[in-house]
Amino acid sequence: MESKKPPPSALVDNHVVPGDVILDLADMTNQTIKLGAGLRQDYDTIQATSAGRLRLSKPNKYWVESSQKRYIPSVEDTVLGIVVDTKPDNFLVDIKGPNFAFLPVLSFEGGTRRNIPKFEIGTLIYARVVKANSIMNPELSCMDASGKAAEFGQLKNGYMFDTSTGLSRMLLSSPTCPLLEALGKKLSFEIAVGLNGRVWVNAPSPSNVIVVSTAIIRSESYTQIQQKSMVENLLVKLS
Amino acid sequence: MAATAMEHDGGVEVVTPGELLGTSSSFVAGHGAYADGRSVRASVTGHRRIVPPSPDSPDKRSTVEVVGHKAHGAVPQPGSVVIARVTKVMARVASADIMCVDSKAVKEKFTGMIRQQDVRATEIDKVDMYQSYRPGDIVRALVLSLGDARAYYLSTAKNELGVVSAQSIAGGMLVPTSWTEMQCELTGQIEQRKVAKVE
User: Which residue range or ranges hold the Exosome complex exonuclease Rrp40 N-terminal domain (chain A) (predicted)?
Assistant: First the structure.
């Protein structure tokens, strides 16, 4: 039997609030629809449970993209965590989620029982979420899928600040957002962005660090054109 | 010396801790009683009951015991099958509150632990606790041992052991479809559990 493509919801890329009906399943048969964050099936309808923009990834994956201070851990996210405790088998890491995450002491490239890293409380770590569900503490790893270190691990020096999750996603979007592109043309700095709403900036001179951080914090909900003009104004004042 | 007044099979007479039940020459101390030199006394509050000696035992004395105290409600023993409700699921172990032992309800709460290696019989190192139990599931388990001070060790590593009843994320009842999957009756979503094969 030929399966038709499900007609996309009329609300895709629009703002939705909790309770909005995204799809009515009564007139669809034999189709698979994947629901991501912020959506719930209520008998024959799909309803939004959080406020944000409805997104569709063809052919059939829907989710609600919202921006908030709190982070809900999800697998394969890269996050910036702060070590809060060390246990024999795990580091306890705060990733701004509902509970602390576990970072196994062996989840580092070439990690064995003999060369366990010694992280103090307060160490900033760039890691990847490996396991995340609603009942257990999330699990992190400082290796990529093939076992290499790949930039994960401790971030030394620099300056870390909090942002909303929406701003983190905007900074990580590809092609590179105009904000970072314009800053990168004039200033030298390195940056690590965590999808949990944390950003780390490091640069040879403190003034570069301050300019970059201020520009990022100010660009919450700026459009691309506004970002470019804001950065240009900032850099003019510098020179 | 046989004391005739005390030898009715009872349940009517209430005894309190320390009360004299008989002499150790005529009675053996059973549940809730202890021998103190030449006398047998009660150690808990309850009703006194006398059990006649079994015909093939060399000791011809009756056993006196004190019944009705909650310490004599059902108590999990190694080898008994219990019904428990899962309270917490963690990476390597799940906690559960034991509610019934061998189809008798318990009078006080017992805690059980199901370790990762006791969830099922095959591929025990690849067990994912999140795909075996969720908080709120009702499971049938076997008591492995008395465990530590905090919890009994339970096992579901048999076909007839595992989740018997569970609720789905949407709030409906889950109906078993295989030994690893259950389906929500409201939304049709499939959820993973270690399911018990109920005859």
Answer: 33-70
